[in-house]
């Protein structure tokens, strides 16, 4: 089955630099098929090399961003949003205030710990959130899955494409539009491209925006090279 997504969407197949609240306000309502995003966890994160994440120490953006995410998502579709477990109350408030209904919770098991204190912290987590009454997938994914280490080369909290691609396959069709309003290094957008979906990414930080844009260009190059080598096969026979 092919998608019904309009080819006229103003932010189709682009990463936009800016505040996602402002950018989503320019998007038509009900224009996105699936949202897959990893917002700041509200933990004031700093990695060993000193890299930080904008808006990770204040939650002013949370409610307005979730309101816009809900508005641009089509009726009877879902969003998957990672969140910081220490701030689950703030995230939950914002999702419910926007209109989202939680319909699932995903745990991503890591082989390494991001931190060790009372526990050795070895998982990431995300909520599956519905707008309206989305249809059930034919073969539902397990809600616990492995998350390989991304290497964090492009971004301090980079998510691996291998963990994102199955989510995109389960909750959207080829050709549909996947939005990531907190795109970071563009992992969700790369996963959308690699699974034959359209994408729209938004990133506030100019450094991560450039990483994401260059990464998407590399992914496009790899896809084009693969296509042309496949096209060459008949002529080589
Ligand atoms: C947890 S990171 C996402 C990392 C991403 N999943 C990846 O694999 O690279 C969250 C990102 O949201 C960005 N951000 C924070 N506030 C934002 C806003 N209001 N609009 C757009 N991006 C924002 C941060 O700069 C950061 O790169």
TrEMBL record:
MF-aspect GO terms: DNA binding; N-methyltransferase activity; site-specific DNA-methyltransferase (adenine-specific) activity
Record bears the keyword Methyltransferase: yes
Domain DNA methylase N-4/N-6: 32-212
Any one cellular-component term (Gene Ontology): cytoplasm
Keyword annotations: Methyltransferase, Transferase
Domain of life: Bacteria
This protein's record includes keyword Lyase: no
E.C. number: 2.1.1.-
GO annotation (BP), single: methylation
Pfam families: N6_N4_Mtase
Family named by the database record: Belongs to the N(4)/N(6)-methyltransferase family.
Protein name: Methyltransferase
Source species: Silvibacterium bohemicum
């Amino acid at each position: 089955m092919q998608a019904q997504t309009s080819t006229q969407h103003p932010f189709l197949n682009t990463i936009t630099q800016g505040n996602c609240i402002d950018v989503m306000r320019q998007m038509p309502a009900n224009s996105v098929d699936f949202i897959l995003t990893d917002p700041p966890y509200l933990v004031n994160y700093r990695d060993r090399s000193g890299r930080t994440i904008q808006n990770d120490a204040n939650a002013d953006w949370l409610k307005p961003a979730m309101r816009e995410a809900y508005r641009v998502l089509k009726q009877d579709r879902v969003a998957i949003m990672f969140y910081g477990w220490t701030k689950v109350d703030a995230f939950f408030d914002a999702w419910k205030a926007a209109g989202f209904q939680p319909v699932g919770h995903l745990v991503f098991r890591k082989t390494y710990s991001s931190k060790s204190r009372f526990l050795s912290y070895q998982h990431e987590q995300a909520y599956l959130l519905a707008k309206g009454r989305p249809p059930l997938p034919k073969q539902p994914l397990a809600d616990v899955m492995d998350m390989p280490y991304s290497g964090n080369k492009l971004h301090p909290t980079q998510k691996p494409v291998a963990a994102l691609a199955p989510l995109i396959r389960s909750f959207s069709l080829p050709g549909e539009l996947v939005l990531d309003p907190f795109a970071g290094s563009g992992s969700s957008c790369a996963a959308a491209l690699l699974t034959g979906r359209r994408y729209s990414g938004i990133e506030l930080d100019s450094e991560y925006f450039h990483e994401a844009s260059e990464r998407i260009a590399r992914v496009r190059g790899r896809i084009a090279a693969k296509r042309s080598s496949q096209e060459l096969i008949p002529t080589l026979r």
